[in-house]
Every structure is written in structure tokens, then in C-alpha cells.
Amino acid sequence: xxxxxxxxxTPPTTGYRSLLGNRExxxxxxxxxLTVAATTLSGFALGTLVNQQTRSPFLTAVxxxxxxxxxxxxxxxxxxxxxxxxPRRTLVSLQCVSLxxxxxxxxxGLPLAARFGFLLLLGFFQSLGTGTRMGLLAEVVPTTxxxxxxxxxxxxxxxxxxxGFAIGAVLLRYLSxxxxxxxxxxxxxxxxxxVASTVRERSIRLTRRPGxxxxxxxxxxxxxxxxxxxxxLNLWVPNGLIVGCEALFISYAPEHAGALLAAGSAGMxxxxxxxxxxxxxxxxxxxxFTLRLLxxxxxxxFVLHPATPIAMAAVFxxxxxxxxxxxLQEQLLELTPDPVRGQVQGVESxxxxxxxxxxxxxxxxxxxxxxxxxVITVLAAVSIAVTVVSRPQVVRARAVRVDKAxx
Length: 407
Description:
- By secondary structure, the chain is mainly α.
- Helices cover 77% and strands 0% of the residues.
């Protein structure tokens, strides 16, 4: 009987330091960190540039999160490449394309239409890269360390977002947005070099021909499973609506937008640290519903247009609620067959990012006619409603997982 190649031969992982002792994980992690830093700087610079040129809340919000719209195209067409037989080569190739997309934004005088075009192209290939990276992650660390690894990557994402927004705000005082794009390009290129030099090829996989048919076959199976549908709904919609709230920060308080975005990222960092590192898997699942509520409830304060320190505190607390993705991702992984883990995780990530774009577009559209504070409050209320109404389906998804384990 062939050995399970998805389980690495590394020793059991009990902490972040042990994880980073795994050279391949360290490479994936470092490449991911640099990519997040580059994406944060690039997105903030583009949002600032669009706001300066158009003064449109809708276009500003879409420019910051517009790349997420294209991720759904990746999920629907070519996401099966995430489970192909040459994942390292695929990831390196996709990061090369991302490098070109980020570098294109640094071209002086580039029309906004072209900038949005590059943004969508970048989102498409980034979604495929995310699926490939997560598929590799599930192979280079033991299954028992998967949540810990995702926690560390989420913490890093929050930390780099804090630094990115803070540093971006400082850089834009001295540099043009094009100058910030150049820095983002350099970070993207460095991330590409790190991944190429540390991650080995993992060619012993099931022989599957990536393409539209394989992608659709797996997606149909994914969405026909009621438990997985419920988990995806809760991973996508509440998260996306709250990102829509964040997309209005530049319009809500232009002078303090960087501080508000950094506060949200700091809360996300703390939430992922506590939930991923200090809680057991069972406790994470028990607190998942509360965390999803925490994600939205503090934003109800924006109806009062609070002072900046109070708004920052509310955004910080809400940011901790993003840690609800960890227990939901664990459940989704348990319900997913090994040969399609990369694609399913890619679909999950692509859908979550797409809903972030949808949330930003909805927020920006309504902010054309209502005050940003009012729109933020309404989106938070809808997020709460979705979380409460869908809770029974999430509970049933957990029951399906238990039944399968017993069987």
C-alpha cells in the first residue's frame, strides 16, 4: 500500500518555533509575509491615488479591494492547478505573474482604467497562487499543526497589514504613490526568490489533468455537500461585509484612515494569536459563533460617528473576530478529501476575497448616497443577521463531521 505522501516526515510540531524549524514551511511563510506586505502597500497607495484623482468613495473602495473580484474567476476556471503534480513550479510561475502586475502599477501616468485592469488580472492569478500555497501548506506540516500554521500566517498577515498601513501612510508623505508601488514590487520579487529557493517540488500526487473540467467537477462536489456550503457561507459573507466597512475608512476619516486600518489589523493579530495558539480545537469551535458576532457588533457604534479614539477601539475589538475563520477552516479541511485539498482551500480563499470585494463595492455604492458612518452601521447589522440565521447549518456541519469520524 503506498505511503501517505501528504504527511511530512518532520517531527511533531507543538509551537511556532518548531514550525519555523521546518525549512519548507519557513520558506512558504516568508514568501507569504513579503507578499502580504507588498499587497498592503500597493493597495493603500492605489486607494490613495484613486481618492486623490476622483474623490469617489465607490472607486476608492473598489481600488483597495477590487482584485478580489477576479479571485472568483480563478475559483471557477483553473483552481484545479492547485492540486497539480508540480505545485512548486506552479506557485513560482504564478508569483512571477504577480510581480509583473504589481510592477505595472508603478508606471507613471497610467490611466485608471488600465490600473483597474491590472488589478483584476493580478487578483485572478493571486487566487490560483493562494490555492497552490495552501495545498502545499497542508503537505509540509502535519495535519495536527495545520491550524497552528494557519494561525501564524494569519497573525503575520495582521502584523504586516499594521506595518503596511502605518508605513504606507508615512511613505506617502514623502513619496508619490508610484514610489510606493516600486517598493511593493521589490518586496514581491524578494518573496518570489525566497519561495523558489526553499520549497521543494512535491511530484508524488494523484495524476490529475488540471483544467476547467476538473475544476468544475470538484466544485460541484464541494457545493453539493450541505456541511461545506454552510461553512463557506460563514467564511465568506460576514467577513466580506466587515471588510466593506473597512473600505470606507478613507472616505469616513481621510486623516485617520491609516490609524483605523492599523487598529483593525492589530485586533486581527491578537485574535489569531489567542485563538490559534492558546485555544484547543474544541474550544475554538465552541467560540466560533461568538467570534463571528464580535466581528460585527462594535461597528454598530459608527451610527453615532464616535471620536477617533473610540472608533479605533471599536475597530480593534472587531478585528479580533476575524479569528472565527480558524475553526471554520479546520472543519472544512476535515470534510475535504486529501487529493483536492488545495483546490478546496483555494476556493474558500477565493470566495472570501471575492466577498471582500463585493462588500467593498456595496459599501462604496451606498456611500455615494448615504454617509459612510451610516453605511458601516448597516453592513455590520446585516453581518450579524447572516451569522445568527445561518448558525443551525454550521452546527449541522459539525454533526456531519462527527458522524463521518464514527463511521
